[in-house]
Amino acid sequence: MKKWFVIYTKPRQEKKVANELAKISIESYCPTKKVERQWSDRKKKVETPLFTSYCFVHIEEKDRNKVFQVPGVVRYVFWLKKPAIVRDEEIEEIKRWLNDYNHEYIETRKFQDNERLIIKSGLLIDQQATVVKQNGNQLILQLENLGFTLCVSQTDMLLSPV
């Protein structure tokens, strides 16, 4: 049975690793965000990885070593001495957030102490999330198994304690 594993890549190699994995028939996912970059003569929006130096691979346990055929793959990410596994629902949630929201303002942050809430409006209605912080129209939602949070620009979202 295939599972989503997290791999650590060389810096700035995330998208290249994902493309190379596809060439050897390994499903991967490298979520990206748009960021405005300033050069001396112009500004340009570029796609950068949402999780720096991380990529997700959907692979069976017995085939895990195949990813090392790709230049740029450093190692698997481990949690409690086992390869970190991300639930299918969390990968789908990342895809949905990136698809549904203006993700030009998404930032990654480290884990912090937080409160568990239910979202009562918007596209994530009735979803449970761990909210780290709410500042104006910015809502910081935590993805627990990844050890990351997503900062999403969202207005008119009602929250209720679990």
Proportion of residues in helical segments: 10-25%
Between the first and last Cα atoms, what is the distance in angstroms? 33 Å
CATH class of the largest domain: Alpha Beta
Strand numbers in spatial order across the main sheet: 10-14-13-12-11-15
Major sheet description:
6 strands, antiparallel
Organism: Emticicia agri
Pfam family, one: NusG
InterPro entries: NGN-like_dom, NGN_dom_sf, NusG-like
Protein name: UpxY family transcription antiterminator
Structural topology:
Blueprint: E1 2-9, H1 14-23, E2 27-29, E3 32-38, E4 43-49, E5 54-60, E6 73-76, E7 78-79, E8 82-83, E9 85-86, H2 88-100, E10 108-109, E11 115-119, E12 128-135, E13 138-143, E14 148-153, E15 159-161
Antiparallel strand pairs: 1-5, 1-6, 1-9, 2-5, 3-4, 7-8, 10-14, 11-12, 11-15, 12-13, 13-14
Description:
This protein is mostly beta strands and 162 residues long. It folds into two domains: 2-86, Alpha-Beta Plaits; 89-161, no CATH class. The chain has two helices and 15 strands. The strands form four sheets. Strands 10-14-13-12-11-15 form a six-stranded antiparallel β-sheet, with no helix packed on it. Strand 3 (32-38) and strand 4 form a beta hairpin. The longest helix has 13 residues, at 88-100.
